[in-house]
Amino acid sequence: xxxxxxxSRDTAMSDLFTPQQRQGGMTYSPVTRLGNWSEDLEAKTxxxxxxxxxxxxxxxxxxxxxxxxxxxxAAMERAPCPDNQVNYGDFIGIHCMSTGGSLSADPDxxxxxxxxxxxxxxxxxxxxxxxxxxxxxxxQNDVVRYGEKVKIxxxxxxxxxxxxxxxxxxxxxxxxxxxxxxxxxSPYSSFNNVWEIMCADSMRRYxxxxxxxxxxxxxxxxxxxTNTLLAAMPNMYPNEFGKEHEICCHTxxxxxxxxxxxxxxxxxxxxxxxxxSCVDNNVFMFQN
Length: 288
Fold this sequence. Notes:
By secondary structure, this protein is of the alpha+beta class. The protein is built from six helices and twelve strands. It has helices at residues 2-14, 19-22, 37-56, 61-72, 205-208, 258-265, and strands at residues 91-96, 103-108, 112-117, 132-138, 149-154, 163-166, 181-186, 194-199, 219-223, 228-239, 242-249, 284-287. Strands 1, 2, 3, 4, 5, 6, 7, 8, 9, 10, 11 and 12 form a twelve-stranded antiparallel sheet that branches. It is elongated. The N and C termini lie far apart (84 Å).
């Protein structure tokens, strides 16, 4: 009896779908009264109702992406920086020497907010995504100085209050392209968000300690938790804003004698064993 009932049940279920539907395709539309047309019609109606509800609530993905792009491309007025001195809380931009672009926030719905660098041939106007403010972690007064520990924060007009952050390199958590120490914008306040500003010229770091950081001066950012320098990589990846350079933590070093010889030929002070020179991938400067 059980075998007969099972066979009759299978036959009844097979009548609900056409052969095309059982093979994975939908040849007939709900207008044609064949197969499971009623369920297809209900699914189509529910899908349309869900679309209209999201459209009325302005929660469609295409609308959210458009709003996010318009927000991130909104023009910003940066701090005037009298005497070229940068103060804590000023709206300031960070220029990458190797890429010729600006440090930017790359918001992504699935993976969070990455740090990236716009290419040198892109528009470098001040916008919400490439304008930041410095928050004092350890310092003397309101002026940003070499050797001080700071936090790099997004401006209030950004959709979230985020900090430039990095964590120790572990398997499964690395930068997507170069597999170095990943740099992201994190909403959590911790020591992973603390960076130390140092002079790019390693021979002058001791004498410049405590001096103000001026707009247009070359500096490096050392991640205090891992003692690794912030770096702008030549590798590029596509995102909503085009193709941009990857930002990670990686300390570059001149290999061999090419670096010292080229610096001595151009009249610059060559590196030593105790104070090696910095590569442009690790060098940044403030711009207003």
